[in-house]
C-alpha cells in the first residue's frame, strides 16, 4: 500500500526580490516593497511530503528521523539565518519563494533515498504559500 508522510520544518532567512534582467524602475514596479535594497526577512514553514510503500515490518513509509537528518543537513543548515541572495543558487535566480520551493524539492529529491520526495510546500507568510511536485 502506498501512503504519504508529511513533516513540517521552520527556517528564517532574509531576501530582496531583484532581477538582473530588469531595470531598477522595472524592479521597483514588479516587486514593490520587496525590492527594498535593505531586504526583509521571513519565518518560512517548509513542508516536505514523502511517498512510498508502507513497510510491512515497520509500518512506515519512512522513518521521520531519517527525513529530519536529511532536511536539517541539506536545507536548514544551508538556508536558516542566511541572506538568500548570497546563496550560490540565487546568484542567477531571483529568491522568490517559488524558486526556493523548487530548489528545496530538487535537493531532497536527489538526496533522500528511503522514500520518494513527492512534494515541497513553503509558507512565506500566513497568506502566501507555494508548492512544487517536480513538474517541468
Ligand atoms: N509570486 C511571488 N510573489 C511574491 C513573493 C514571492 O516569493 N513570489 N514574495 C513576496 C515578498 O517576499 C513579500 O515579502 C511578501 O510579503 P507581503 O506582500 O507583505 O505578504 P503578505 O501580505 O502575505 O504578508 P503580511 O504579513 O500580511 O504583510 C511578494 N510577492
Ligand atoms: Zn519577502
TrEMBL record:
Protein name per the record: 6-carboxy-5,6,7,8-tetrahydropterin synthase
The record's annotation in PANTHER family points to: 6-PYRUVOYL TETRAHYDROBIOPTERIN SYNTHASE, PYRUVOYL TETRAHYDROBIOPTERIN SYNTHASE
Q: What class of enzyme is it?
A: lyase
Q: Which reaction equation describes what this protein catalyses?
A: 7,8-dihydroneopterin 3'-triphosphate + H2O = 6-carboxy-5,6,7,8-tetrahydropterin + triphosphate + acetaldehyde + 2 H(+)
Q: What is its EC number?
A: 4.1.2.50
Family statement: Belongs to the PTPS family. QueD subfamily.
Q: In which pathway does it act?
A: Purine metabolism; 7-cyano-7-deazaguanine biosynthesis
Q: Name one GO molecular function term.
A: 6-pyruvoyltetrahydropterin synthase activity
Q: Which Gene3D superfamilies match?
A: 6-pyruvoyl tetrahydropterin synthase/QueD
Gene Ontology biological-process annotations: tetrahydrobiopterin biosynthetic process
A Pfam family assignment: PTPS
Report the cofactors: Zn(2+)
Q: Keywords in UniProt for this one?
A: Lyase, Metal-binding, Zinc
Amino acid at each position: 500500500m502506498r501512503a504519504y508522510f508529511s513533516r513540517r520544518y521552520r527556517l528564517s532567512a532574509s531576501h530582496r526580490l531583484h532581477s538582473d534582467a530588469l531595470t531598477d524602475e522595472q524592479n521597483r514596479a514588479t516587486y514593490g516593497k520587496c525590492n527594498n535594497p535593505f531586504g526583509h526577512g521571513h519565518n518560512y514553514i517548509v513542508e516536505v511530503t514523502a511517498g512510498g510503500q508502507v513497510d510491512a515490518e515497520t509500518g512506515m513509509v519512512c522513518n521521520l528521523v531519517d527525513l529530519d537528518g536529511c532536511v536539517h543537513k541539506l536545507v536548514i543548515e544551508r538556508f536558516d539565518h542566511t541572506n538568500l541572495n548570497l546563496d550560490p543558487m540565487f546568484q542567477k535566480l531571483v529568491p522568490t519563494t517559488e524558486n526556493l520551493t523548487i530548489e528545496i524539492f530538487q535537493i531532497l529529491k536527489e538526496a533522500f533515498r528511503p522514500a520518494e520526495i513527492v512534494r515541497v510546500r513553503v509558507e512565506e507568510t500566513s497568506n502566501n504559500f507555494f508548492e512544487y511536485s517536480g513538474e517541468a
